[in-house]
Automatic annotation (TrEMBL):
Cellular location(s): Membrane
Name recorded for this polypeptide: SulP family inorganic anion transporter
An annotated GO BP: transmembrane transport
Pfam families given in the database record: STAS, Sulfate_transp
Domain STAS: 454-557
TM helices/strands, residue ranges: 39-60, 67-88, 94-124, 136-158, 188-206, 213-234, 264-286, 340-373, 393-424
Matching PANTHER family: SULFATE TRANSPORTER (PTHR11814)
Membrane-protein topology: Multi-pass membrane protein
InterPro entries reported for this sequence: SLC26A/SulP_dom, SLC26A/SulP_fam, STAS_dom, STAS_dom_sf
GO cellular component, as recorded: membrane
Keywords, alphabetical: Membrane, Transmembrane, Transmembrane helix
Length: 558
């Protein structure tokens, strides 16, 4: 949510809505005590980010240095320009599937171009102030695609966890992948399996008994030291990728030919959609931990700039990372300076200690990502949704299945569509017409009023939109079958859309043809404005403040 209230006039972006949180923090007053706290938090996050960024890059089908570039450049820009005080940007496990598929389809240059284009799309989404709407994605969809991504990440690490040899390469789709892995089961490396198991057990043990220690880094360092000391026959970063560079590459724009842009565009759209969702979810998590509120659109603009910067320096997709952001909050961060320092600490590591990264076993990094996948799965939430209602279970399971067996973007789109359909159905069921016991008033016995033998009052409840209009329109028609004074009470109708207004337009014509009188009472300004836009102005019917005013006008006895 934005810290500024939405404007009531024209949709013109205001400066505070796009003001980086860094400037807000500095304006509030920033001293040495804050800097010390942020330095500690930044170092803590950098220790977590070091092995994770390399592991994510390798799992995504690119060199480990690309993960470092993404963390340094992207993380720096997200914290410098972002709309969240505590957001930590960098490569995220949620992107592994998409990035790996993009690399296979378009190569590294296509990945850099897709990331570059995605940056401009994110800036556009933020500039148009669409950030708030992205957060309306149904909860079952987010749980379903997160759990699906977790399954795919774990499946992608089985090869290195067990040290399997796949001479023909590893298929991208999960079913052929599992088949190929099973066929290669005889090539299991006990050394790789021991390193991976030891890494996982070390991380889990430290999390339980020393939760404040940097478990990921300690486990990776221990695995690297033991593997080198014992000369274990396991693949390392240096063996597969060579030595890591010790400086950032010179900035360079990706190739922008028409064919290249056209090939990269679908991937850019996918990166944009997932990046916007992931970054805003991460910001919401930080808000929940701190009681603060982020600026959605400023955050999206910052994410866009960060993706452009990352691509220019050879990195890939940048987004807000929930685990590192939560670590930043728990470490005592005071604001965006900790995120900036985390990027600088990673840069310092690359400048000083990059050769040491070559000793890291790939099985150890696979163990790190296995833990990441386990934590991502949101198992309790998934099970709770499956047990909640049939509709929620359908949405979460369909999203999960499509993400795992089809495509991530397809899973999100169809999941959102199903979630929207469930919402429409529930809102339609919430809307009702009181037709069982309509209120009737009769004229005095000596009035001789035969044309209007009484008055029927129909009370509507709930929002009257296209989902409800189709169901309730026939009810209104039945009540209005006879010529009479027909009163529709809108007191409990907070909203009406064009479909709902259209149904009342039909009702007004039908009532007029039968010589009846139609009254709308207790209509709020927003609902009345929509009705009048569809020709339901005073003259075609009568607007009154309450039912008693109608009774007085018709001379009806209570």
């Amino acid at each position: 949510m934005s810290e500024t209230s939405p404007p009531t006039g024209p949709a013109v972006p205001t400066a505070p809505e796009f003001l980086p949180k860094l400037l807000t923090v500095l304006r509030e007053g920033y001293g040495m005590r804050d800097l010390r706290a942020d330095a500690f938090a930044g170092l803590t996050v950098a220790i977590v980010a070091l092995p994770l960024s390399m592991a994510i890059a390798i799992a995504s089908g690119v060199g480990p240095e690309r993960g470092l570039y993404t963390t340094i450049v992207g993380g720096f820009l997200v914290s410098l320009l972002g709309g969240s005080r505590f957001q930590i940007g960098g490569p995220a496990g949620a992107f592994i599937v998409l990035v790996a598929a993009c690399v296979m389809a378009t190569g590294l240059e296509g990945l850099l171009l897709a990331t570059f284009l995605s940056g401009f799309m994110l800036i556009g989404i933020g500039a148009l102030r669409l950030g708030t709407y992205i957060k309306f994605i149904p909860y079952p969809v987010t749980v379903g695609f997160t759990a699906g991504i977790a399954v795919i990440i774990f499946a992608s690490q089985i090869k290195d966890l067990f040290g399997l040899s796949l001479p023909g390469g590893e298929p991208a789709e999960i079913v052929p992948k599992l088949g190929a892995l099973w066929a290669a089961r005889d090539s299991v490396s006990l050394a790789a399996l021991a390193v991976a198991t030891g890494t996982v057990l070390t991380i889990l043990g430290l999390k339980r008994w020393r939760p404040h220690w940097p478990g990921l880094l300690i486990a990776v360092i221990a695995a690297s030291g033991l593997s080198a000391a014992l000369s274990l026959p396991v693949d390392t970063i240096a063996a597969r990728f060579g030595d890591l560079p010790r400086v950032l590459p010179a900035p360079a724009l990706p190739g922008l030919s028409v064919d290249a842009v056209w090939s990269a565009l679908p991937w850019a759209v996918s990166f944009t959609l997932l990046g916007a969702i992931e970054s805003l979810l991460s910001a919401v998590v930080a808000d929940g931990m701190t009681g603060r509120q982020h600026r959605s659109n400023a955050e999206l603009v910052a994410q866009g700039v960060a993706n452009i910067g990352s691509a220019v320096f050879g990195g890939f997709c940048v987004t807000g990372t929930i685990a590192r952001t939560a670590t930043n909050v728990r470490a005592g961060s005071r604001g965006p300076v900790s995120g900036i320092l985390h990027a600088l600490f990673v840069l310092a590591f690359m400048l000083v200690a990059a050769p040491l990264a070559g000793f890291i076993p790939l099985a150890a990094l696979a163990g790190v990502l296995a833990i990441v996948a386990w934590n991502m799965a949101e198992k309790e939430e998934l099970w709770a949704l499956i047990r909640a209602t049939r509709a929620d279970a359908m949405v979460v399971l369909v999203t999960f299945g499509l993400v795992v067996f089809r495509d991530l973007t397809e899973g999100i789109i169809i999941g959102v569509a199903l979630g929207g359909a469930v919402f429409i159905r529930r809102m339609s069921e919430a809307a009702s017409v009181d037709e069982d016991a309509p209120r009737r008033r009769h004229p005095p016995a000596d009035s001789g009023d035969a044309a209007h033998a009484g008055m029927v009052v129909c009370h509507l409840r709930g929002p009257y939109f296209f989902g409800a209009a189709a169901r309730l329109g026939s009810v209104l028609d039945r009540i209005a079958d006879r010529p009479q004074a027909f009163v529709v009470d809108f007191a409990d109708v907070p909203f009406i859309d064009s479909s709902g207004a259209r149904s009342f337009e039909v009702l007004a014509r039908k009532t007029a043809r039968k010589g009846g009188l139609l009254y709308f009472v207790r209509v709020n300004d927003e609902v009345r404005a929509m009705l009048e836009k569809h020709g339901l102005a005073e003259g075609h019917l009568r607007y009154r403040g309450n039912i008693e005013a109608v009774e007085a006008e018709l001379g009806l006895a209570p």
